[in-house]
Amino acid sequence: MNAAFSLAPLFRQSVGFDRFNDLFESALRNDTGSTYPPYNVEKRGDDDYRIVIAAAGLRDEDLDLQVESGVLTVTGGRREKSEGPVTYLHQGIAQRAFKLSFRLADHIEVRGAHLENGLLNIDLVREVPEAAKPRRIEIGAAAPAPRQQPALANAA
Predict the structure, then answer these.
(1) Helix or strand or coil: residue 20?
(2) Which residue from 116, 98, 112, 107 is spatially nearest to 50, judged by alpha carbons?
(3) How far does Cα 120 stand from its chain's mean position?
(4) Tens of pLDDT along 123-146?
(5) How many CB atoms lie within 10 A of CB 100?
(6) Going by C-beta distance under 8 Å and a sequence separation of 6 or more, which residues neighbour residue 111?
(7) Which of 31, 91, 119, 139 is deepest in the core (most CB within 10 A)?
(8) Environment class of residue 115 by beta-carbon count within 10 Å: exposed (0-12), middle (13-18) or buried (19+)?
(9) Backbone phi, then psi, for 21, in 5-degree steps?
(10) Which residue intervals of 45-153 are DSSP H helices?
């Protein structure tokens, strides 16, 4: 049984938790996501990440990467068939089209991508702007409150 309900009433009073809400909504929809082609998400440093996608038999022109509204979308597939008639005795290398989407966290940018040895490597980096980084606030002595002037009794 698939029960669909919205958590929107729980988040009406919240500000800035849109992605938190999306996370729960997608989990409740029971989206299994795509498992083709296989991929890895690697953390290579404190702020460096890499997505590695198996792309056997694909060329640069067979792949397309786009980032829109914080979502990285990778599409691919053979655009042309092999030349000449081919009879496969066993065809185990999948050549179907695919589309993978990755929701990027705040301040994650795609630095580049390259295809090497049948693997598509997409390099990502977290660049937090100075204004968004945590900063320490020094606590100083309280400044004296400004003295209020007594009201003049005979205001004209």
Answers:
(1) helix
(2) 112
(3) 17
(4) 999 888 888 778 888 898 777 777
(5) 19
(6) 123, 124, 125
(7) 119
(8) middle
(9) -65, -45
(10) none
pLDDT tens for residues 35-87? 789 999 999 988 899 999 999 889 999 999 999 998 899 999 876 666 678 88
CB 42 within 8 A of CB 50: yes
Asked if residue 74 lies in contact with residue 122, where contact means CB atoms within 8 angstroms, the answer is yes
Query: Which residue is associated with the tokens 């490597």?
Result: 121
Check if the beta carbon of residue 95 is closer than 8 Å to that of residue 28: no
- DSSP 8-state secondary structure symbol assigned to residue 52: E
Domain ranges across the chain: 1-31, 33-80+90-129
User: Quick one: which of 21, 17, 23, 18 has its CA closest to 7?
Assistant: 21
Total residue length of the chain: 156
Residue type at position 11: F
* DSSP 8-state class, residue 21: H
| 33-80+90-129: CATH number | 2.60.40.790
Helix, strand or coil, per DSSP, at residue 39: strand
